[in-house]
């Protein structure tokens, strides 16, 4: 088979919309010329499909098909109604389940806490960039928790935050009444999010530092010469200069909070106290693994998927806009 | 334009097929071969279970020398998730270990009724009820699981109480707790982080609260949530929390094993523990010494009740319906519950075995007291509830302890969940 002849048809379409039609017609002409009497023409036409087939197959078989299967299962019943179409019953049950509503409102809480989770590494990176005393030391120390597994982090904080643990011992020593960090439903979710931020902000910090490397030092010097204070420098020089980095960190932090808090939740609170620290992924796991409700879990997964899709699309849009400003 | 048409097509196909198929497989399934049996459990990997597995294997090999047996130890955290996946695919182990109660009852669709194969063992083994559904036995019990109230005799002495005669009524018990509190220890070691504390509470104290008739009705599925005695279970739970009988931060204390550690380190005088696996007489003996560990009956709350030990079949082996020859697989289950194997399990792993013919006199007074109470024992109250209701009860119990819900509201929610499922 004349592989060489296949080459022109897989060449990328030239960039720029306006030439597209011309290039297409040129290709058609060439195709028309090649077709008569050449056995290789069919192979030539199919070659690109064959070449992309493995990638497409992997995506379709391992990604899209299971996804559709999951959505499909969410319209079937559990237990005695296993295999029967039940319409929207599972979704109605989800809406009525206070636990799932808590899980969703916790997602909302995570979105609200996002600015804090982005601001912390941003501020610390700013201090390191401005070379506060000991900045080299802090740079490595801040990154350290990022290498720990969530299970280890959870276990460490379980010990620290136990009712009779060291944190409460310090509180008692200075005369503050002890707090049941992981047993008080009003506090527990914030504690878990706080621990998650502590454990993961090192990565965002590194991204910020990389962003600072692209910042024009002359601008900072100019601002200083003009007598700008630190808050003014941050507000008018650093934030506009780092808008792309900030957008990127916001996206990755949000995805991280929505998808990788399971380990911490599992170890630190098991969704409790009083179900106050449920997140959708934990709910899905409980329904599938503990309650033997795979169809209901499929419905919850579908809802989570839709949420992630919306959040993801919004963020891609945000990234594009931030990119466009540069 | 073309893309839009494509998406519309995808959408139409998707909607047309929505609700077809099923989330868990029901169809006829293959898997497993007659010359090899695969066993799933979460026990066989532990060194303390080695003697048990070896004995069972030897017993089975004598009956079926041509069949090999492979034990696959799964992590317990993931066990029912993995098993759920296996059941959905209709392929998996031939024989598998189950906890009694809801965990097996929710999954009997995937299991073979064992009655015709294990008829001879019905008398020798105790605890079948936990593995029954609709009158059929789906697993043979290996250990018994129950909820004795353990107490620390050394703390009783320190508080000026007689360790040989623990309280028999609730008022006496509260008076003893006050004395123990003065001696610097808490009355109960309670871990309710997972919401399991209330289950233990209900089952350990229930026989002193519900009348015999109410108790039997409860187990039989006729649960009267409007009964004042049922409500009393939750009232006492809340009162004990409000009165400071429990260790601080019970809602953030893990039962396994932080609450047991509190009891073992003599920071609390009582703990509602288990009979087998963990948090039981063998663990406590090691820390408190066998002489200082006592087991008491539930104090009488409602006059006229006769407290009894709450226990059920703890873990048991079941046979999957996709196995090639259920008879061979059931024979393996019989080997796994033979007297020789269970004797090894009791001695090594520290379990009250389902075989009532085993002699436990070597294990100390606490184990002897438990075994002596088996005869008059009854199934545990919480085991009769569905896993969904138990999950809700865990959360409600945390709310009761923190005071964010009233007892009436708690019982109302539980009744709704119990009657729905």
TrEMBL record, chain B:
Organism expressing this protein natively: Verrucosispora sioxanthis
Cleavable signal peptide: 1-23
GO process annotations (BP): maltodextrin transmembrane transport; maltose transport
Keyword list, A-Z: Signal, Transport
Keyword Disulfide bond annotated: no
InterPro entries xref list: SBP (IPR006059)
Molecular function per GO: maltose binding
Family recorded in the similarity comment: Belongs to the bacterial solute-binding protein 1 family.
One of the record's GO cellular component terms: ATP-binding cassette (ABC) transporter complex, substrate-binding subunit-containing
UniProt xrefs under Pfam families: SBP_bac_1
Protein name according to UniProt: Extracellular solute-binding protein
Superkingdom of the source species: Bacteria
Transmembrane region(s): none
